[in-house]
Structures are given as structure tokens and as C-alpha cells.
């Protein structure tokens, strides 16, 4: 007699869910004619096979069953039978993974396998949140730090390197730095062995280090947990979120809904392909996979089933794991329909923006895809979506390296990119300002290399962005020449200063604050080694740079008019008799937007209506090759010099001194000065 009791089950809750009677299973497959559920113990031994009767266990395209008597911990998979055709093939012997599985067996250890097949995992784990909730910090007050869980701590002196617990051990560093949110590169389960390329020197196979190749969207990368017990990864992830929240730091996840780990026609079958390929993917009439992602397949995000799954995933991570926000990789793919056509009002994007459970959740789009669709400033926003502002990145890089004709555009970017966001009822903080990210050069490499150096990736140097907008100051790569080093470090300080005095939400990747280098590799997605890992010895070697970043973040937080809620108007305030922002060049009130120069100055008023909210802030930028003299507007006494990127020591030390000659400021080449006045 079977120890298990079965009933029809509930089609409304997908995946595995505990019920008063046992466990309910629900799975979508619209073309399956028969479906088997296989239950295994932790050793991989088959406990039972349940063949689902379509008359009893199928409602529409949802297969469902409730089972009583299952053990507290078990693994499971499905086998599906059906009629194969151009758009769908079935292999009745292939075990398929539940797209809603919240745990996956076999991936517990980085770089090695346990021998267990890839199967869904169930284990109930209690967790005491002790009242923790998502923090809900306004986006305008955020400072985002992009972080790779393994790379952040793999080379650190922590007890649990490369794990969520390792991140917990480094929270004091994050808190001292001053960031308000960490943006974690992908933590959905992925296969690090999913990389075909070899190291050209050692001939060993690279690993998928970055993880932009999700197996499903509910399970967590189990190798990132030091707790190897069943569902220990979920418990440890929760502990990390809770600890970060206790430190006042939010958690944003980088999610990859544009493609999956299954690849194209020749790719492997894990779950989605075997259940309903033409629902989950964009296919043509012959079953060929569209490739708007550049990774072999394209997720069909606006299909009703896929849209529901994406919403379910986001809701799960917010409600159950207390995540504060999401950054959507190649999010423009989510604006395409099943034919790849761009939709004006994509259902999935609108649903995310208007979902009541996600109404306080940060949603950030990488507003382009790998097929040329570029939607920065035109992403279907519903008034909610923030965007990685690639226009900010490119303008700042070009202006800083001396390109001409960009003064007006730089002013627009510094003021929050009103031209991109106001028309869609968005605000300055919807512009996620960045100069570097995981994708491309580090900031140190941006000032040290003209060209990418990606041979180590195993693709003969063909991979990675060619259009880097970088400048090496005359030497490609490392240099010991004092003059070159001084120029490079000053330029890093310039970039950081522009980032933190700009309206919008600043973001920077781990290590920029201590001079992290990747040796000119601008696409180290497969470099699970010192190329990518954060070298913590740089914190001591480049202590001045780290102190400069800390001081900049403190300065930004202390001045609310550097992160305003609304765009500047240019109108004169009746109390201060100044516009809320004004533009200048060497002479006050005479900006030179059309003179082919690289000089600019700005003055931000401290008043908001009749109330004084902040000090006056004046910043002068000289990216010319020779010194220039600037005149501060209203250059009477009272101006205090806060920052000079040519001489950062006083700023780092907190020394604020009166401006010697506010009507005749000398700015050294490629430098920025910032002043305040009550």
C-alpha cells in the first residue's frame, strides 16, 4: 500500500506549496498530453512516480496534484509526453525542472558538482525576521553600490569568502563608505560551468562568473551560501538582507528576464523548452529562436504565462525575502511582443510598474538590448521606471577626455537629464547616473587604457565593447611615472565628483573607490580569478582615493539640493533673487555652451520657495589643458572652498577655508572646485 495519499490539487498556486494535507504541485504545459511527477529523497533515490490523469489533474493548461505523506525534505522533477512539432519537441525520458522551484539540487558547491541531477528541492525553513521590512528609502536619497557576491569577498579576509555570509562580514566597510544600497549581480541559480571558452594560456575551461544566465527565477545561487543544508541558501540570503537592513543598506537584485540558460536550438533542455517552448521563448514559424539578447534565446516576456511568472518571482523576492528593488538586465527586450516588435505599452512592464505589492519597490531598467533597441529616455515608464542613464555615462566620459561641443549636453546631464525624463512624468532621480559598471572598464582602467585587452577571455580579443570613450594619458596600461599617476588619479577624482554633484541617483561598481583594475579587460564575465575579485589590499594602497569617495558621499548627503525631487525650473526665487540653477563659464552669468570649450560652472540656489533648505553651491569645471580663472557669481565674502580635485587633501580632512579670491579663482588643468556659502 502506498504511503502517499493524492487528490486533485489546486491550479491557482504555481510550483510547490505546503497545504494542511501535505504539498500541492502546479505546473504549466499547454501541449503536454501526459505528465509524470517524480519524487526523490536527498540521496537521489526515487521515492515515487505520480502519473497525473488529465481528467483529474489538469485545469486548462495547468497540471496539478496534492500529495500527503511526503518527507520534510525531498527533490522532484517532471517528465512530459506530447506530440512533437516544429515549435515543440518532447522527450518522455527527459527530467524537467519546475520553473517555480525555490531550490535546486546539485549546485551547492562552486566549481564542482555533488553528482545529483538538477532537480527541484523542497524543505521548509523557519526564519525570524525580527520585524524586518524593506527599508523604503526614497530613490532620490540613494547611493547604489554594484556588487558581485563572490567577487566582493572571495579575496577578503573573512571566514566565509564568496558567500552571502561573507557579505555580512563586510557590512562595516559598506556602512563606513556611506552607500545606501547594494545592487547584487545575478543571484538566481545559474551554472558556472556554462561557458564554452578556454583560457588561451592554461587551456583550462573558463567559468560563467557573472551569472547572467538564469536557470529559473525563484531559486538562489546555492554556491553563494556557506550553509549547505537543504534550502540553506534561502536562509543565508535572508540573514544577509536582514543584516544589511539593520545597517541601513537596501538590497537591489540584478535580474535577467531577457533570456535563460537553455540557449538556442542547439542549447540544452532544462525546463522551459521541454514544457512549452513557444510560450516561454520568441520563435519563428520554423521553431528558430530569436536572439535579441545575444545569448541564443529571447524570453517571451509579454506572453500571459511568462508575464505572470515574472510578477510572481518579483513578488516572492519582495514579500518573502524582503528585497528592496530590482535592476532589469537588457530590459528593452521586455518591451517586445512575441514577434520581436516593440510595443508602446508592454503589458509586463506596465504590470510591474502598477503592481500593488511592488508599489514601493525600486525598479530600474537597463533600457536597451543586444539587437540595437535603445530606449534611454523613452523606456515605457508608467511614471515609475528608473533607467541606467547611458547618455550620462557617455557625455561625462567624452567631456572629461577633452571632446568638444558637449558643454550644453553636460549641463543637461548634471541637472538630471530633464530632456529624457520629464516628458514621461518622471523625476531627476529616475536617472541612474553612472560612469562605470560591471559591464566595461573599471574607473581605473578607464583612465589607463585606450583599448580593450580581452585575450584572456578565450575569444581572440573579439568580445567586449570597442567604443570605450577612455583615455590613458599617454601610456597604455600600468605606469610608474609620477606625472601619469597624478593625472590618472585626478581624473578619477573628477569623474567621482561629477557623479556625486549631479542630480539623479548615483551608482558605482565595487572597487572603483579603491582603484580596482581588470588589466584592461572590459568583459570579464568568465574571469573567476583575481581579474574580477576585489583586491582588498588596494584599500590601503589607495587610501586617499577611498577617503575621497567617503567624503564625497558625505557631502552629497549633507546637501539636499544635490538630490532634489523635482527638476530645476530656472526661475528666480523671490527670497534669494537667484534662479534655482544658473550656468556660468570663466565669467559669471556668461556660459559658453557653443564655443567648443571644456569649461563650465554652475550655481545651485539654497532656497526652495521662501524657505532656505541648503547652502549655495558653486562648482567650476576646467577640463582644458591649461589653467583657467573663474569668477563666482555674487563674489562677495562668505564663500568657502570645499573641494579641489587638484589638491584633495583638505577636502578629505574636512578643512573648509574661505575662498581667497572668489572673483578670480584659479583652476588647474583637468580639475574641479566646489564652494558653498550660507
UniProtKB/TrEMBL annotation:
Keywords: Hydrolase, Transit peptide. InterPro entries: GH, GH13_cat_dom, GlgX_Isoamylase_N_E_set, Glyco_hydro_13_N, Glyco_hydro_b, Ig-like_fold, Ig_E-set. One of its GO terms (biological process) is carbohydrate metabolic process. GO terms for molecular function: hydrolase activity, hydrolyzing O-glycosyl compounds. CDD domains: AmyAc_Glg_debranch, E_set_GDE_Isoamylase_N. Residues 146-556 form the Glycosyl hydrolase family 13 catalytic domain. It comes from the Bacteria. Coiled coil: none annotated. PANTHER family: GLYCOGEN DEBRANCHING ENZYME (PTHR43002). Belongs to the glycosyl hydrolase 13 family. This is Glycosyl hydrolase family 13 catalytic domain-containing protein. The lineage of its organism: Bacteria, Pseudomonadati, Pseudomonadota, Candidatus Lambdaproteobacteria.
Amino acid at each position: 500500500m502506498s504511503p502517499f495519499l493524492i487528490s486533485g490539487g489546486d491550479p491557482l498556486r504555481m510550483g510547490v506549496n505546503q497545504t494542511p494535507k501535505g504539498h500541492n504541485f502546479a505546473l504549466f504545459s499547454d501541449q503536454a498530453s501526459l505528465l509524470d511527477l517524480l519524487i526523490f529523497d536527498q540521496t537521489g533515490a526515487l521515492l515515487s512516480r505520480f502519473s497525473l490523469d488529465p481528467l483529474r489533474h489538469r485545469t486548462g493548461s495547468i497540471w496539478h496534484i496534492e500529495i500527503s505523506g511526503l518527507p520534510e525534505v525531498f527533490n522532484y522533477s517532471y517528465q512530459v509526453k506530447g506530440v512533437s512539432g516544429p515549435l515543440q519537441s518532447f522527450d518522455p525520458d527527459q527530467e524537467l525542472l519546475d520553473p517555480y522551484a525555490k531550490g535546486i539540487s546539485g549546485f551547492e558547491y562552486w566549481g564542482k558538482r555533488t553528482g545529483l541531477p538538477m532537480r527541484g528541492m523542497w524543505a521548509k525553513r523557519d526564519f525570524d525576521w525580527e520585524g524586518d521590512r524593506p527599508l523604503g528609502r526614497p530613490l532620490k536619497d540613494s547611493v547604489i553600490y554594484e556588487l558581485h557576491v563572490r567577487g566582493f569577498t572571495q579575496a577578503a579576509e573573512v571566514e566565509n569568502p564568496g558567500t552571502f555570509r561573507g557579505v555580512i562580514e563586510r557590512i562595516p566597510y559598506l556602512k563606513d563608505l556611506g552607500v545606501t544600497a547594494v545592487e547584487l549581480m545575478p543571484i538566481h541559480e545559474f551554472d558556472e560551468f556554462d561557458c564554452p571558452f578556454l583560457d588561451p594560456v592554461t587551456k583550462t575551461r573558463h567559468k560563467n562568473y557573472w551569472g547572467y544566465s538564469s536557470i529559473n527565477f525563484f531559486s538562489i545561487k546555492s554556491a553563494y551560501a556557506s550553509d549547505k543544508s537543504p534550502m540553506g541558501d534561502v536562509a543565508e540570503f535572508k540573514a544577509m538582507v536582514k543584516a544589511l537592513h539593520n545597517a541601513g543598506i537596501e538590497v537591489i537584485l540584478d535580474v535577467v528576464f531577457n533570456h535563460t540558460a537553455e540557449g538556442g536550438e542547439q542549447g540544452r533542455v532544462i525546463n522551459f523548452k521541454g514544457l512549452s517552448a513557444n510560450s516561454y521563448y520568441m520563435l519563428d514559424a520554423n521553431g528558430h529562436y530569436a536572439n535579441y539578447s545575444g545569448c541564443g534565446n529571447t524570453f517571451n516576456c509579454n506572453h500571459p504565462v511568462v508575464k505572470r511568472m515574472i510578477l510572481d518571482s518579483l513578488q516572492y523576492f519582495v514579500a518573502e525575502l524582503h528585497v528592496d528593488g530590482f535592476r532589469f538586465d537588457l530590459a528593452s527586450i521586455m518591451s517586445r511582443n512575441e514577434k520581436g516588435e516593440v510595443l508602446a505599452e508592454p503589458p509586463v512592464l506596465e504590470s510591474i510598474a502598477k503592481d500593488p505589492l511592488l508599489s514601493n519597490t525600486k525598479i530600474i531598467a537597463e533600457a536597451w538590448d543586444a539587437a540595437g533597441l535603445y530606449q534611454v529616455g523613452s523606456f515605457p515608464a508608467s511614471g515609475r521606471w528608473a533607467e541606467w542613464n547611458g547618455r550620462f555615462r557617455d557625455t561625462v566620459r567624452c567631456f572629461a577626455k577633452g571632446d568638444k561641443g558637449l558643454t550644453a549636453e553636460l549641463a543637461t546631464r548634471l541637472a538630471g537629464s530633464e530632456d529624457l525624463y520629464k516628458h514621461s512624468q518622471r523625476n531627476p532621480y529616475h536617472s541612474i547616473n553612472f560612469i562605470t559598471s560591471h559591464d566595461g572598464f573599471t574607473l581605473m582602467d578607464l583612465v589607463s587604457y585606450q583599448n580593450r585587452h580581452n585575450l584572456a577571455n578565450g575569444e581572440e580579443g573579439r568580445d567586449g565593447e570597442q567604443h570605450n570613450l577612455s583615455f590613458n594619458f599617454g601610456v597604455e596600461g600600468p605606469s610608474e611615472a609620477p606625472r601619469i599617476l597624478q593625472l590618472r588619479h585626478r581624473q578619477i577624482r573628477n569623474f567621482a565628483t561629477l557623479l556625486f554633484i549631479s542630480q539623479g541617483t548615483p551608482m558605482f561598481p565595487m572597487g572603483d573607490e579603491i582603484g580596482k583594475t581588470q588589466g584592461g579587460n572590459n568583459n570579464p564575465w568568465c574571469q573567476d580569478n583575481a581579474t574580477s575579485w576585489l583586491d582588498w589590499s588596494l584599500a590601503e594602497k589607495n587610501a586617499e582615493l577611498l577617503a575621497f569617495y567617503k567624503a564625497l558621499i558625505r557631502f552629497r548627503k549633507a546637501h539636499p539640493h544635490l538630490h532634489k525631487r523635482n527638476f530645476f525650473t530656472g526661475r528666480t526665487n523671490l527670497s534669494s533673487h537667484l534662479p534655482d540653477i544658473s550656468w556660468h563659464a570663466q565669467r559669471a552669468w556668461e556660459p559658453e555652451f557653443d564655443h567648443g570649450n571644456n569649461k563650465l560652472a554652475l550655481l545651485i540656489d539654497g532656497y526652495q520657495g521662501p524657505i532656505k533648505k541648503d547652502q549655495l553651491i558653486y562648482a567650476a569645471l576646467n577640463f582644458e589643458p591649461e589653467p583657467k580663472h573663474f569668477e563666482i557669481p555674487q563674489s562677495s565674502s562668505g564663500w568657502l572652498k570645499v573641494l579641489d580635485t587638484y589638491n584633495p587633501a583638505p577636502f578629505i580632512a574636512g578643512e573648509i577655508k574661505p575662498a581667497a579670491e572668489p572673483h578670480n579663482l584659479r583652476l588647474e588643468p583637468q580639475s574641479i572646485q566646489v564652494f558653498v556659502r550660507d
